[in-house]
Amino acid sequence: MIKSILNIPVQIINSVAGFFQKLAQATKRPMRSGVLTLKSLISAVVVALSVFVLFYFAQPFGIRENTALNKTLLISIASAAGFIGILISDYLLPFTFKKFFDSSQWTVIRQFSLFVLRFFFVGLLVMVFSNQVGLAKFDLPMVLLEFTGFGAVIGFIISFLQESTLRSKFSLKSEIINRNLQNFTPVESQKMLFPVMAFSGANEKLSLVPNQLVSVSISKYKSQLLYQNFFGLADKELDIQAEDVKKELQKHPQFIQISDHEYANAHALYKVTGDASGYELHIAKRSKPVRLSRKFEKTIESL
User: Fold this and answer.
1) CA angle 41-44-48, nearest 5°?
2) Which domains does the chain have, with CATH numbers?
3) CB 3.0-4.6 Å disulfide test: which of 130, 179, 188, 245 passes with 136?
4) pLDDT at position 286, please?
5) How far does CA 62 lie from the centroid of its chain?
6) Which class for 298: exposed (0-12), middle (13-18), buried (19 or more C-beta within 10 A)?
7) For the whole model, what pTM was predicted?
8) Are 290 and 264 in contact (CB under 8 A)?
């Protein structure tokens, strides 16, 4: 009996520790980034409008007592300050700290950090400007810290909701894509009896049956071809113009573009998985899945 009672605090501590451990793991889940996109610009406009509506109609923080003739103009400038705050967090910082804001490494915790930065810079610019011109009376830095803390709570909740929603969306779509892959038949198979691909490099020519070619990585003057032969898997680099490679690939509809510089054979795709960051393509003969670029998602969804 006594032993059971003594174990209760230990069980509580273990439960709490387990909860925080799971929470820490959840914050590392991949997620889709919206920085440096039109979505960020729309967010900046929404913030500016929200500041204007709040200051013009509700007139909190001593704004109602302000009798200046140019009050509406000052409110408009304060709204523009909120707009600039989003531009700083979503454009200037990502452009300056590219490693942290790398979209391929974006996670829930980084999305949460973005929300904190947004609230901080919007609050900082709006509050400092309003105090300086006498539009409002903010008790800095306390009000700014409270506003940022409020943003952190909101950002924490929204980040996990976004991750859950996007993960469900792409997981469901990936199941549909996998079913479509099993029945995928390119148009060329119905028209060409013996299709052959020819890549003529500066010093070498490579001819392949389309199903031999697994994937192609293209640069301006060189291309890396991963293909199968009698001895297994081969990887060859050719000195060849990017446009010449693309023209040859476009003759064979089974090759789909998965990024700005990479194509893959749809017949080599054996599985597509989805998470909150989008799709990952599992390509035969490649040890690691490949992240599908956002701009080419419609291509894989229409197979």
Assistant:
1) 145
2) 21-167 (no CATH), 184-301 (2.40.50.1020)
3) 130
4) 85
5) 40
6) exposed
7) 0.84
8) yes
